[in-house]
Amino acid sequence: MIIGACLQCVIGFGLGLLCVPVLYWLMPELVPAPMILNALLITALLTIKHRGAIDVKQTGYSIFGGAIGVLSAAAVMVYVDSEQYRLLLGSCLLLAVGLSLTGWSPKLTMLSNLVASIASGFIGTTTSAGGAPMGLLYQAQNKDKIKANLSIFFVFINLFGIIALLVTGSADMQDIVLFLKCLPAILIGWGASYFVNNSINEKATRILIILVASFSGLALIFIHR
After folding, report:
1. What angle do CA 128, 126, 186 make, to 5 degrees?
2. Cα diameter, the chain
3. What is the pTM of this model?
4. Which of 35-49, 116-130, 196-210 has the weakest average pLDDT?
5. The dihedral sign for the CA sequence 107, 109, 114, 117
6. How far is it, in rounded angstroms, from Cα 148 to Cα 157?
């Protein structure tokens, strides 16, 4: 989790895609609600750091679309059992990986923003690893703009997501306790990012995260616990 938090700060994503697949097998109780809270904290810190690069107009579109995705995901989570959730998690992880690998660079418009944010809101609420659709949309922008606009988007979406899970009974106070136990790792990762920000090989790291998420997504679908 320390590594995931550090990568989130350095390259703009990584906490969900790297940690969620591994934690599902090791500590499934951390997915999705405690990990959504972890993501809420780290994205809030990044938003404050990069607040000067936020595009207010596009952020408004993305928050609206993300809210639609969150509500859709919350409705789905009410009706899925543990076996169905395992398949849903694996499928969403592979979808996120597939989007990351396409290399397609869509133009940033109101429509593309809405589509990407709905997808990110849905995947983020069901798996806490929803950065790929919005990351794909912003990949041609400079690093500060990517981090600023993805972070402010996920502050709102993670907040909406955890509220929706609490309201529907898919999360409870135990998830908040688990989040608090994760807090030191998240803060250590945040602090470590200042030391590795200019030395890490971003391309190699992205490939590693995608490989981990790919194998984990396939394992969730085809291997029974």
Report:
1. 15
2. 46
3. 0.84
4. 196-210
5. positive
6. 14
